[in-house]
Amino acid sequence: MAIKKVNLELTDRCNLNCTMCYRKSWSEAPQDMETEMLDKILNELVGMETLEEVVVGGIGEPTVHPRIMEVLERLSRYRLMLTSNGTFFTEDLMTALIDHVDQLVISIDGLSEVFFDIRGFELQVVIDNVKKLNALKITRNSKTPQLVFQMVISKTNKQDVFKLMDLVSELGATQFIVSNILPASLEDKDLILYSENDVPEMKAFYQRIRNHGLKKGLEVRLSESKLKTERRCRFVENDTTVINAKGDVTPCYRFAHSGTEVVFGRSKKIEAHSFGHVMADTLEDIWETDAYKKYRAMVYDNHYPSCTDCDLVDGCDLVRDTTSDCYGNMPSCGDCLWVRNLVYCI
């Protein structure tokens, strides 16, 4: 299959320093995508006949990149999504959002006090920015961008979820995404709400979220509350690839950067995995390499071990990092919580 969706990380830099962010476990310095590299990528993307959708996002905050408005304009021929923390909106940027972006996904993890504790920023600034955007949409008689809000839920902020849904509904949201936290350090391992076994009270809590969304007219996309057998990778199934800020072509956000994650109390080293670099080959040529095609087939067909619920997991050295698994696959997806829908990816 050809590439249908590209997730483009313009920068892995961010103007915030959220408590639960994966960036806290990185050793690499943050950077913006270089000019020559971005030019090459944009020229390739606008000429791709099979491409349907582009997500401008990644682990950084794309609106801090100096060429963000140009990028949105160049890619507006496709279905275009922007993920953002909603803090860095100028009037010029809001105009570009209305003119070029189909869907705007804003991260919002709690009401005022909790939001500040997590993000170190005032929630009211984000609310005011959204209201200004909505007013400008009315002035320009535009229904886009559609507003989507995403919450990373944990024991720290779960008490805010229903009032937060009330708020985003009032702000005109069409969707509300609730993703479980994936801890980046052992300090946060006890913050998770999900479990390996069925917990009736958590199942009921997640069902209340669904029901509240229905009352508020929100399409709720909700992670699971417990580990289940089914495994589905949205990146592979949707013919999606990721280009990180360094120009590496990676299969998903998980392998875009090296860092640490904690899976049910086990610390795991994530090794970045690239199938090629955009300055060395075209994106389509990298997509068609034997290694990348073999990887996608392996994931799509579920030909990899289920490490998370394996009886030997506590004694296995292979689960300490993502280098390889006991089937010989490289990299290893056996512990991925995204494919279990415990963590939600866009």
From TrEMBL:
Decide whether keyword Metal-binding is in the record: yes
GO-annotated molecular function: 4 iron, 4 sulfur cluster binding; catalytic activity; metal ion binding
UniProt KW Iron-sulfur keyword: yes
> Per the database record, which ranges form the Radical SAM core domain?
1-219
Which SUPFAM superfamilies does the UniProt entry name for this protein?
Radical SAM enzymes
Q: Which domain of life is it from?
A: Bacteria
Query: Which is an annotated Pfam family here?
Result: SPASM
The alphabetical list of record keywords is: 4Fe-4S, Iron, Iron-sulfur, Metal-binding, S-adenosyl-L-methionine
Q: Which cofactor does it need?
A: [4Fe-4S] cluster
PROSITE patterns the UniProt entry points to: MOAA_NIFB_PQQE (PS01305), RADICAL_SAM (PS51918)
Under the heading NCBIfam families, the entry gives: W_rSAM_matur
**Name of this chain's protein:** Tungsten cofactor oxidoreductase radical SAM maturase
Where does this protein come from, organism-wise?
Petrocella atlantisensis
